[in-house]
Design goal:
Blueprint: H1 17-31, E1 44-49, H2 55-66, E2 70-75, H3 87-97, E3 100-104, H4 108-117, E4 122-124, H5 132-146, E5 153-157, H6 162-174, E6 177-181, H7 190-198, E7 203-206, H8 209-213, E8 218-221, H9 236-242, H10 249-252, E9 260-263, H11 275-278, H12 285-303
Helix pairs in contact: 1-12, 2-12, 3-4, 5-6, 5-12, 6-7
The structure holds phosphoric acid mono(formamide)ester (CP) and norvaline.
The site of norvaline has 9 residues, from helix 6.
Length: 307
Amino acid sequence: AAQAAPRHFLELSDFDAATLRQMLDLAADTKRGAVADKPLAGKTIALIFEKPSTRTRVSFEVGIHQLGGHAIVLSSKDMQLGRGESAADTAKVLSRYVDAIMLRTDSVAKLRELAEHATVPVINGLTDVSHPCQLMADVLTFEEHRGPVAGQTIAWVGDGNNVAQSFIQAAARFGFTLRLATPPELAPPAQLVDWARREGATIELTSDPVAAVRGARCVVTDTWVSMSDEKEGGPTARHNMLAPYQLNAALLQHAAADAIVMHCLPAHRGEEITAEVIDGPQSVVFDEAENRLHAQKGVLLWALGAG
Ligand code: CP
Ligand code: NVA
């Protein structure tokens, strides 16, 4: 018998705005304690990590526990996946045991293969090209501090990396203007920017951080050397390219007076952001980190149809 397609959470671009909003509403409901007790009772979720994690690992495990479910945290090194078993076979096997699978991987192709062969929901816990769970938390955080994000201007300064690319998708779905200042070499893929513009988003690309930040209601940055860049052989080239994009007090001066500062963490004080800014009054980075927990509960409740 044909089964309903599992509710994967792979890319923000896969969804319409209303479905993402439904997940955020569930997140806000769980945060204020307005969700039925133990909606994931009897459910088991596998959390697979091919790369390190603090926030994603702990927030998923704690969130699942708080919703009454059970999490199994797996390092791919300890799985046959780490020694060549295919993502397809892994998906088919795990689908017989668990109710959902989260994967953090370098390879978006591996995530897609897992999702294609899983009969349970697959959640993207970061790839080399996206980090949608982060953006759900970021939108929740912006809206808690500054109200509806639609029509607002958010500035991204630094590397056009996985988080930046999910910001572009979020701009298309949540209706905010996104200005990205990156070195030309580290600009986000033109194909993705074109897609977002076709979807009606306002995406402005520049190599001038001051132009990007001017008047913005929120300024965001991220590490200069992402996990997938570590194999490039030394961070020096990136540091040289990205130094002019540091989020410091002088740059933040150009933003709206009430601008908030976000960073997905982990941060490197004195590199992409100064201590003064990340530890200063405009920074909401720890609210943002906390919201990973709440946002992912919303995603899980939606994916498991338990909302
Ligand atoms: N922001 C984020 O995803 O952090 P971790 O790498 O610690 O999970
Ligand atoms: N861009 C960073 C985000 C970490 C959460 C990385 O991929 O390493």
